[in-house]
Amino acid sequence: MGVRPVNENNVVSLKDMSALPTNAGSAYELLVAAGAPWTTSPTVLIGSGASRTGVYAVQLAKALGAGKVIVIEPWESAQNDLLTSLGADQIVDDAGAA
User: Fold this and answer.
1) Phi and psi (nearest 5°) for 58?
2) Order of strands, edge to edge, in the sheet holding 68-73?
3) Does pTM top 0.70 for this prediction?
4) CB 50 within 8 Å of CB 26
5) How many Cα atoms occupy the beta-carbon half-sphere of 63 within 13 Å?
6) Nearest 10 degrees: CA dihedral of 11, 15, 18, 21?
7) Dist. CA 21–CA 18, nearest whole Å
8) How far is CA 36 from CA 10, 14, 17, 51, in A?
9) Residues 58, 71: contact at Cβ < 8 Å?
10) What gap in Å lies between CA 10 and CA 60, rounded to an integer?
11) pLDDT tens sequence across 2-42
């Protein structure tokens, strides 16, 4: 991740948050509701990581202290390289698992 969206205290300022799309704010709020920022490096599971909110969630989870980010991706593996570059440690491909 190029620019960290959080400060040294792992908190996103309102000023910085206002510059991000709504999807980033949604991802941040969901991660905070799940206990972020973390000091215990938990494993975080993100469904549909290649979605608009998911790509922010993957990056923010890492920035907020996740030890491992696992993404469940409902599409075929076309987005795996993108998700890995954003910080996903493992991608579970559930294409066709309806």
Assistant:
1) -60, -50
2) 43-47, 68-73, 90-93
3) yes
4) no
5) 24
6) -50
7) 8
8) 9, 17, 16, 21
9) yes
10) 10
11) 445 555 666 667 776 676 678 888 999 999 999 999 999 99
